[in-house]
Structures
1.
Amino acid sequence: MLALIIFDLDGVIVSTDRFHYEAWKKLSDDNGLEFNEEVNQLLRGVSRSESLKIILEKNNRIIEAPEFNAMLEKKNRIYRDKLQDLTEADILPGVITLLEDINKNNLLTAVGSSSKNTPLILKRIGLDKSFDTVVDGNSIRKSKPDPEVFIKCAQQLKTNPGDCVVYEDAAAGIEAALAAGMVAIGVGENELPGAHRMAKTLKSESCSKIITTYTRVLGRGPA
């Protein structure tokens, strides 16, 4: 029975794309690396470590572990500084209304994100107390597309993976949700392979729509 709705963070609840881009761009410029929008698109839904590997690979650059780790730390410092500008006004359209609708229907909610900055971001936008659980990059060993983050959300709320629906805006996240045995709803303008349904934003979403999608895919309604 449907019991838990899991939300990815960046691109679903809030958008910090511009901050990520600016941080990676500055890091790349400071280290003589080429970085542009095309490369940036490859980083969607990917961990910080994997993102840097992609940038280095695109530049045919090989570096030792100490330098690699130093670059990761520098990127995160730049990014976290930029996050101080985040406010409740940055919450994406439809998020608050959908959360209220889900709560009225007595379903659980969670955030499942690979970002280690999830607690800071949720606090900056005033949603740090709005979910039944939060699982982020600080409590997982494997990032998306590995399903660990979503499976942990279900485990923490004593819910079966098959009783969960995930909202995701990245291909890696959709892959992770499917691997976990969950229903996956893609968010954004571009079609995401494997998603059971797409939603341009959460503005047109409702608990009724979630239940309809879940029932269509798995044939089971809410508890």
2.
Amino acid sequence: MSEKLFVSLVGEQTIPNILGVLHFKPDYLLFITTWDMKNKVRYILDTLRERDLDWIDHAILI
């Protein structure tokens, strides 16, 4: 079985990102965002952890 990567742009609205992850149930997550929105990724990951979905968090800053 092949692994799935979920690629998502993160902005002010985080609900579409969360719903996408819940729907597709990927093996890996890649969030693309700006420095100003980096805390939104934390909110998304915290929400997913509350639903017993957890991914290892690695940040790559460019």
3.
Amino acid sequence: MSSITYSERIKIETFCELGLSNIQMGVRLNRSPSTISYELSRFT
């Protein structure tokens, strides 16, 4: 699978502010929840 893009990172930031779970973010971005979790641990 390809890397998370800058625009996806911005969306993840927005989704976090809205209180979405990793599962909900993954569904919206067509990514696995573990990918979201990994990105959050890298950049927070």
4.
Amino acid sequence: MSRAELTFGVPPRLVDHYLIQSNPLGVVGVDQPPSSNITNTTTPDTMALKDSYLLPAAADMHVHLRNAPGPIAELVTPTIRKAGIDTVFVMPNLAPRPVVTVDEALEYKKALQAYDPEVNYLMSLYLHESITPDEIRKAKKAGIAGVKAYPRGATTNSQWGVVSFDPFHELLSTMESEGLVLNLHGEMPSSPTDNVTVMNAESKFLPTLASLHSKYPNLKIVLEHCTTADAVAAVRACGANVVATITAHHLSLLVDDWSANVHHYCKPSAKSPEDRRALLQALVTSEGKFFLGTDSAPHDISSKKGKGNTAAGVFTQPYALGYVLTALEEGIARGDIKEEQVTEEVLAGFLSEFGRKFYELGPAEKQILVKRDGAVVEESLKTDKVEIVPYRSGEKTWSVEWQ
């Protein structure tokens, strides 16, 4: 396909069906019995953690910064370092056109650097039929960090995404040989005929993960933003080349939270107490298989609370580390994890070291002090063009100081 022929208009309607087997791992999160701890979105009265932690600068391996130049990118990009983060893996699902060439990725990176040149932006391509093996080789040489696969119709700006991985065999083989990472949005699109909803979409996708790992055993794969116990188990069952990111907000949220608050709604959606517990336990026992990827996804307030369907995405960028620490403290209070499991070593691994190692980066050059000092999450971030409401607005959080 020539460059002139490459267009990104609204594609023809396709059947949301992927050729995979039924889920052998079971579905978590459906028909769960009522629980006394079904929601917990307030800071516990008993403080289980220390009041401060000296850590290496964090690495956030899944962020959305939106089009740049653009009003949202201009507002949110400078908040990365506010959270104690110096490295981010930037998602390519822009609109009206995703990032599908190396030149586009580098141009996007340059625009982001204009907002904050001190951040290390790891750029990615959007898996699309227009990408050639030669472009993959070019991407590796140019320092592109990964290629993101979006199942068509599963999430924001996924209308150009994958229907089947079969046509991408040569591309995936090239990625495997070049050492370029495949990043997966691990959900099936909702489909009444196939009994797929937001509650089981991730579990339904896991056979695809297993199949890709089997066909391309040396391909480095990231299952992005795990939300289920099934996903945690599936990643652990794979070899060392398969890892997963966990967001800050999924460590706290449950289905009841986002069903009542548009600012808690995202894809994949938060699920059951059992799933949340599995994520917290994965964090404190990660051993490199799980690391931070916030999936911070800013939307203007008009897209979250305006007319029509609400946009999927939770904005966590400025307070990401504080959200993680608060979630761990809540988990200790509920008995999901133990206080002694949350050490500086565990936090340093999950928040910084494991992600850097997987992407073959050097260690953080600077340190941060994360401390409990009465800081409060802003009610909103806004300019004269956009307004974005952060997760847990108005609640107490942790602050970060660069050392």
